[in-house]
Amino acid sequence: MKIMDKEKLFRQYLYAEMNHQEMDEFEAKLDTDEALRQEFRIFEVMYQDRELRVKEAIKSHSIEDKRIAEVQTKSIHQFVPWLRAVAAVLVISCLGYFMYDQYSPSQPSVTDLLAMNISDIHLPPPVAMGEAKDEETPWQIAIEAYRQQQYEVAVNQIKNIEEPNEEQLLYLGLCHMYKKVPNFKLALDIFSIILADEKAMAKDQALWYSALIHLQLGNKKIGVEQLSSIVESKSWKYKNAAQLLGSF
User: Fold this and answer.
1) Which domain holds residue 82?
2) Can you state the angle between helices 238-246 and 110-119, rounded to 10 degrees?
3) Are 153 and 60 in the same domain?
4) Residue 111 to residues 9, 56, 141, 146: CA-CA distances in angstroms?
5) Residues 63 and 94 reside in one and the same domain
6) What's the rounded Cα separation, in Å, for the pair 235 and 50?
7) Do 55 and 87 fall within a single domain?
8) Which residues make Cβ contacts (< 8 Å) with residue 101, sequence separation at least 6?
9) For residue 127, what is the DSSP state?
10) What's the structural domain count of the chain?
């Protein structure tokens, strides 16, 4: 999908210009296409930021117009030409600002990007690998609880696994991140266990979430180092890591 097509699609969704069928199809794409979902979240943040700044600009200019009107009432004959010139400048300024803002959207802040990436729920595994379908195991229950965003239930089930593998440890850390009251430090400790294993298949995912947590906890130096490592190796989420680095 071309960039312009995506932006048009995003705008139609945000401005409620889609019918019910189009909205359902678009939301279904967001659920299955992680890259599209990330781009939409970024566009949505920029859209909200742009809308707020335009409202603030209009409010600011409205206050200025009111002040000018009061001055004009007091000395209407003396200042009519000057007031007209000021009004013209204000109108042109507003139009120029709006046009510039429409075609030059500001970049979201590091705080916005960090919150967006942390809140982007990691997809659950499609199946419980190695588990018997006719037997309800702790891991199967944990996966279903994770899908339902019942993270406390998932944590308790994974704890019942005697020797959890790296995938199970990854989701244990994610559950601690996504809980109603997140435990970022515990999640970080769990991701560190995965990162300590050079052969771990989930190492890239653990590194990404570890970087996010370090930044969330104010450990900027470690977080930036981990993001830089992701970008240099072009591993999982390296584009998101590059965007976060560029926002500092």
Assistant:
1) 3-106
2) 150
3) no
4) 26, 21, 34, 26
5) yes
6) 32
7) yes
8) 50, 53, 54
9) S
10) 2
